[in-house]
Amino acid sequence: MNSIDELIKSRNGTLVEPEVKGFLKECSIDVPRSFIEIDLDTAVEKAGTIGYPLVLKVISRDILHKSDVGGVCVGLRDEQELRRAWNEIYVSIAHRCPSAKIEGFLIEEMAPRGVEVIVGALCDEQFGPTVMFGMGGVAIELLKDVSFRLAPIDQDEVVEMMKECKGFPLLTGYRGSPTNDIKAAAGVIVKLADIITGSKLLKEFEINPLVVYEDGCMALDARAISI
Amino acid sequence: MDAFFKAESVAVIGASPTAGKLSYIIMESMLSSGYGGDLYPVNPRHNEIQGSKCYPDMASIGKQVDLAIFALPASAIAESLKDAAPFINAAIIVSGGFSETGEDGRRAEQELLAIAEKEGVRIIGPNCIGIYDAISKIDTFFIPRDRVNRPAKGRIALLSQSGSFALTAMDVFAAEGIGVTRVVSYGNKMDINEADCLDYLTEDDETKAVVIYIEGINDGRSFVEAAKRCAAKKTVLALKVGREGAGKKAAGSHTGAVAGRYEIYRAAFKEAGIIELSGYEDILDACRVLNKLSPVDGKRVMILTDGGGMGVGIADSLSAAGFDLPALPRAKAEKLKGIFPDYFAVANPMDLTGSVTDQWFAEALDLTLEDDDYDIAIVASLWGPPNLTDDLPRLLGEVAGKHGKPVIICSPGGAYAREKNVLFEAAGMPVYLTPEGAVRAARIIAGMPLRR
Fold first, then answer.
1. ipTM of the complex
2. How many domains does chain A have?
3. Are B258 and A134 a contacting pair at CB < 8 A?
4. What range defines the domain where residue A217 resides?
5. How far is CA B265 from CA B96, B125, B238, B429, in A?
6. Under-50 pLDDT residues of chain B
7. What are the residue ranges spanned by the domains of chain B?
8. Which of A178, A185, B277, B297 could join B282 in a cystine, given CB atoms 3.0 to 4.6 angstroms apart?
9. Residue A88 to chain B, least CA–CA distance (Å)
10. Domain B301-445 carries which CATH code?
11. Looking at the structure, do residues A139 and A70 belong to the same domain, yes or no?
């Protein structure tokens, strides 16, 4: 059995963000440096190993969209901000998602800015494994600047697919911005295509955002939905 | 599949002497289509139907029959199919009342499928109008010709889940002079589906292009594989209807939320090399050009016109579509300038103005198509210039034929122009009434997507 399927099985079908990111790391897809902690004082102690500013995210199998329930705080500059954010997330979850069981917190490095894109894969009932690329940001579901292909797919075809998006020039140096690593982003999509093609249990798999830099790219958030 | 399209004998099961009944019209269609094979009406209650000897059952015909058409109430089909199966190779089940009606219908359909598989009979339908084959003249459409006409023999095959769409398209094609090879409406496609038809058409030398009208596809991957094989040999175009709706509302990710059914269909069309059509107009424009012209490998277009404005409009539309409009090579330009009055714009677009003559049009087209400077020519010959005569279409047609390159006519106009435009079609060139239509036609034969 393929390793994402093993992971899904071992977690009874629901994966939390650090598990998905751990899997991405195994696939040689870059993710932010991070650690998981349940105790605030220990988290504060370990924060130095990564260095401020930090991102704090709640870990719970009961929460699908963390930021919708106040489960994410970014740009925490020091211990004081980390402690406050930790408590705020607890309070917010208690109010907005009281039945959610909190397994701990994911503490991550604050990734540098780049161009945000969304890459995904899904298993379609009629056509089977499919991959998607889209320009990122909050308006994705509004603008739908996305393109799809059937999987498996090679690197060249992925680049063709990426070029179909109107926002694609944002990656190639629009109005003086740097040229970004399209190859690296395309490589991630090829990997997603292979992952969804090889899996029997994945329904949807998504990295959003994938931040693309001049050199390389990084998965800031990811989710896996099983059948 | 030959048992459907090249059937040497056809039986109509449940044939009726009552004018207006489906089986009566099917007999009528078969009798009036020019079909050259044997036709057997089957019905135990009659001795003769529409002048043909009527048989009580398939066994009494005394020989194997290629194709049986079943036009009976749904409840009678299974029994009738079981009786007929040993004597037939293929069947078209016209009757509705199966999986399209719900769970009971689905079970009834499964029963039919089991009989067919056991007896080795291939089936089109149920809930369909079957086939119209302009080559073998098999016509199972149950709408009379004086209501809905049938096109002549041509180059295009049409696959349609919808019977009414197939019928309407046939009538319009017939009126527009667009010919077909084989038309299939497969309805519930319990056995024969798009992929089976595509595989058959891939090997069918008569068919140069295939148009598919899709409501929904069940086995997506086998469709994509069959379409890919077909598109490697001929032009394959598809219109998917029912685009809105079942977007996955309950999706857990953005990917799921933006992945409407249509996005996945588009991805599948791309994978297969299918040209995606976005509506009925696209189908007509595409079939009009494929009826006359073959695909080209290249996107360099020359525009010839006798009306400057129309030339610019076509140039805009071509550029937006991603075509190249290379300048006229210097030597050719010099040569034409030597022939034409100095107020002609010898360029691309080339404006021959209202002073143009038949001969000048033909010379300009001849010289531009010579050598390997252009892949396609669009000729916007408006009929206003007083020197143009009925000879123009023939002359241009001869030049196009000599160079073996596609020439598309863009000739908007009213009564006079429309009457004369028929001459272009007769001379082997498709005619469009708008620049956009002509450019869509160019995209189709250049294998370029209609949407970008």
1. 0.85
2. 2
3. yes
4. 3-27+113-226
5. 27, 23, 10, 33
6. 246-250
7. 301-445
8. B277
9. 26
10. 3.40.50.261
11. no
